Every structure is written in structure tokens, then in C-alpha cells.
Amino acid sequence: MKILAFCGGASNVDVEFFGPPPHYSFTTDFSVDELERNGFSQNCEQVGDTPEETLRNLLPFDRIDAASNNGYKEDVAWLNKILEVEGPFQAVLGFSHGACVAATLLEDNLRRSRDQGVPSMFKMGIFIGGVPPYNIADGGLFLSDVHGEIFDVPTLHIIGSSDPLIDFALALYNLCDQDKARLFDHGRGHQLIW
Asked: How wide is the angle at C-alpha 6 spanned by C-alphas 166 and 150, nearest 5°?
């Protein structure tokens, strides 16, 4: 099985990469340090009636809109060029911010498949401690209470019920076809389990 995988954005600063370079980072216009200075990690508990409302209350959506319009279109276009050479893949997989990258790429791929008849490069998505995808067409994040169901392929969502970011993962899950989406709770925090 051929899987395209993305690691978490803030957890890979000192990581050792396996496999040949190049190794790239999906860019953003706001930093994890900035979110931490604003008390983000201490305030990640649910602060809304739905996961989507919690995300709206926690994230700097005006900055996310700017980031998606300034960098993510180019990043996804670059990743699509890699897919043309290396694809297709059976799945795209991501952890944390990497799940956001994976979901963004999957959404773009499925939309292009529907709108342009381009063959899909992915058959499914696997998201660990996920985050909803960026809306590279309109800016911001995709959220189910605005955009409805955007993923009609099978998805697996691995979450931790003790994860302070659980609403991020549930907001991603809510974007998926509930008949094709599977949820597995490992009962821990925002981490990979072995």
C-alpha cells in the first residue's frame, strides 16, 4: 500500500528524517509561538457548543484567511506536481498539523476530480489528532456548519479523548461522510501511539 504521510508541524523541530531528502515544511503566516503567547494551549478546552464553534473562538481566523490566500495555494499546487510524478496513492495520512495538510490536499484532489474530471490520487484519508483543512479557494478553514460534508471517501480518524485539541479532530470528522468515516479513540492526549 502506498501512503503519502505528513508529520505534525510544531512537533518536528528536532526530528530525524528517515528517507532521502528533500524534506519540506508546509508554510504558515502565523506561528505556534504566537498562539502559545496568547495562552492557546491552556485554553484549548471546549469553548463552544460544537467543535466548529470552539475553533472559531480559539483561532485567529483573519490571519488564517491571509495565510491560505498567500501561501497554501502555491503549496498545494507544488504538492500536486509531486502527486503527478509519484502518485497515485492509496491513502494520505497526517498527524496534527500534518493532518490539516493531508486533509487540504485530499479536499483539493477530490474537488478537482469532481470539477475537472481529473483522476483522484487518493482512495482514503487517515487523520491522527486531525485539524480541518484549509479552504484554499476562499480562505479560512472548512467547517461542517458552513461547508457541509466535503469528504465522500473512506476516512479513519484516530483521536485521544484526553487531547486538549479534540475539537479540532472532531471538526475534521464532521466534514466526512459519516457512513464511510471511522473514529478510533486511543484514550490519550495529542500524540501518536505505538
From this structure: 60
Give pLDDT tens digits for 107-159. 999 999 999 998 889 999 999 999 999 888 887 889 999 999 999 999 999 99
Spatial contact of 4 and 92, defined as CB atoms under 8 Å apart: yes
173, 183 Cβ separation under 8 angstroms = yes
- Note if 96 is an active site residue: yes
Which residue out of 31, 96, 144, 161 is catalytically annotated? 96
Calpha distance 6→96 (Å, rounded): 9
Grid cell at residue 31: 506561528
CA–CA dist 160, 128 (Å, integer): 9
Q: Quote the CA–CA distance of 33 and 36 in Å, as a whole number.
A: 5
Alpha helices (H) along the chain: 32-37, 51-58, 61-67, 73-86, 97-116, 144-147, 166-173
191 burial class (0-12, 13-18, 19+ CB within 10 angstroms)?
Answer: middle
